[in-house]
Design a protein that fits this description.
This protein is mainly alpha-helical. Helices cover 67% and strands 2% of the residues. The protein contains 15 helices and two strands. The chain has helices spanning 9-26, 35-49, 56-64, 68-78, 82-104, 107-122, 144-164, 169-174, 192-203, 207-218, 223-230, 234-258, 263-269, 281-286, 290-313, and strands at 125-127, 130-132. It has a two-stranded antiparallel sheet with strand order 1-2. A hairpin with a 2-residue loop joins strand 1 (125-127) and strand 2. Helix 5 runs antiparallel to helix 6 (107-122). The chain is globular. Residues 165-188, 273-277, 288-304 and 310-320 have low confidence and may be disordered.
Length: 320
C-alpha cells in the first residue's frame, strides 16, 4: 500500500525516531521484513491517517499506538513471505473458520467461505507486476483478528448478492423471501472479566488523566490542543498519552489476572475488537472529569497569580 500523498518531514522524523524500537517489537526480522521496508509501511500508514500539518510529537504518539507485530506479519504475508504466511495460518486459520461459521451458520459453507478468502489474503494475482493481497490494506490501527472478521463478513455479503442476482424477483416473491428481514448476526461479547477490569481501571484514573484521554482519543483533539487546554507543553502531553496507554494495559491485565485468568488468557482477551466491549468508554472517561480537571487547573492558576502579585508588591523591609 503506497500512499500518493507526500510524506512530511515531521512524519519522516517521527518514523526515524521510533523505527528501531518498533521494528524490534514487531518481530519483523524473523519474517524477512527489513527495517527500510518497515519504515516505508509506517510512513504510509501515518500519511493515510494523520493531517498534513501534523507535528513530529503527535506523529510519534500515533505510531506508538499501532499494533506493529500484526502489521508486520500482515505486510510480510502480502509481500509473499512464506514463513510469515505459515505463522499467519497457525495464528488465524482456526479463528477465521470460527468467524466464518458464525456468519454462514453451516460447517461446509463456513469452510468454503474461509478457504475462498485465503487466495485473496495470500495474493496469488498480479497487478502491474506486483502482488495483490487484501492484507496489504491492513494498517495496524485495530486488531488483525477484528479486521479479518470484517473482511470475511464483507465477502459473505458479496457472495450473497452474487447469488441473488441469479434468482428472479418473481421467484423470491413466490417463496416469500423478498423483503424478508435478515436474522441478526450473533457476535459473542467480550469476556466479562475484560469489561469489568477495563471499567474499574478507567474509573480509577485521575481527573486530568481522564480528561487527556477523552480529549485525545474520543474528541479528536490534537496533542497541541490538549496541551493548550491544560497550559503545558505539547511534548508533556505526548509523553503522558504514551505512558497512560502502557499503564492502562498493564493494569487491565492485572485486573483480569486477579479475577482468575492466566496471563496468556488475559493477553488474548485484550485482542478483542473494541466494538465488542460492553463498556461505555466515553462515560467512564468523561464522567465528572472535565469540570473537575479544569476547576483544579483554574484554582492552581489563581494561586500562582496571587503569589506572583504578592511578589511584585513586596519590598525589602515590608512586613509579610
Amino acid at each position: 500500500m503506497r500512499s500518493a500523498k507526500p510524506i512530511s518531514a515531521a512524519v519522516q522524523s517521527a518514523v526515524a525516531d521510533v523505527l528501531a524500537e518498533l521494528h524490534a517489537k514487531s518481530g519483523c526480522e524473523k519474517i524477512g521484513l527489513t527495517c527500510e521496508a518497515f519504515a516505508a509501511i509506517l510512513c504510509d500508514v501515518a500519511v493515510k491517517y494523520l493531517p498534513s500539518g501534523v507535528g513530529q510529537s503527535e506523529a510519534r504518539t500515533f505510531l506508538l499506538t499501532l499494533r506493529v507485530e500484526e502489521l508486520g506479519l500482515a505486510r510480510a504475508c502480502a509481500a509473499g513471505n512464506n514463513s510469515a504466511w505459515e505463522l499467519f495460518l497457525i495464528r488465524y486459520r482456526e479463528k477465521l473458520y470460527q468467524s466464518a461459521l458464525r456468519v454462514a451458520r453451516e460447517e461446509s459453507a463456513a469452510r468454503d467461505l474461509a478457504d475462498s478468502l485465503y487466495a485473496e489474503l495470500y495474493g496469488t494475482s498480479l497487478r502491474e507486476g506486483e502482488r495483490v493481497s487484501k492484507l496489504a490494506s491492513f494498517t495496524g490501527r485495530g486488531s488483525l483478528e477484528g479486521w479479518l472478521r470484517t473482511v470475511l463478513a464483507q465477502e459473505f455479503v458479496n457472495r450473497y448478492r452474487r447469488t441473488k442476482r441469479l434468482v428472479s424477483l418473481e421467484e423470491e416473491n413466490e417463496d416469500g423471501e423478498q423483503f424478508a428481514a435478515a436474522e441478526p448476526e450473533h457476535v459473542p461479547s467480550a469476556d466479562p472479566r475484560l469489561e469489568s477490569a477495563t471499567d474499574a481501571v478507567l474509573a480509577a484514573l485521575a481527573n486530568e488523566d481522564r480528561l487527556v484521554l477523552a480529549a485525545y482519543y474520543l474528541d479528536g483533539h490534537t496533542l497541541a490542543e490538549v496541551a493548550r487546554m491544560l497550559g503545558v507543553h505539547e511534548s508533556t502531553i505526548s509523553r503522558k498519552v504514551d505512558k497512560l496507554a502502557k499503564v492502562l494495559r498493564k493494569k487491565i491485565l492485572a485486573g483480569m489476572m486477579q479475577q482468575g485468568m492466566t496471563r496468556r488468557q488475559a493477553e488474548e482477551a485484550l485482542e478483542v475488537d473494541v466494538r465488542d466491549l460492553q463498556v461505555n468508554i466515553r462515560r467512564s472517561l468523561t464522567q465528572e472529569s472535565a469540570a473537575a480537571a479544569f476547576s483544579e487547573k483554574e484554582e492552581s492558576l489563581r494561586v500562582q497569580q496571587k503569589v506572583a502579585a504578592r511578589a511584585k508588591s513586596w519590598k525589602p523591609g515590608a512586613s509579610s
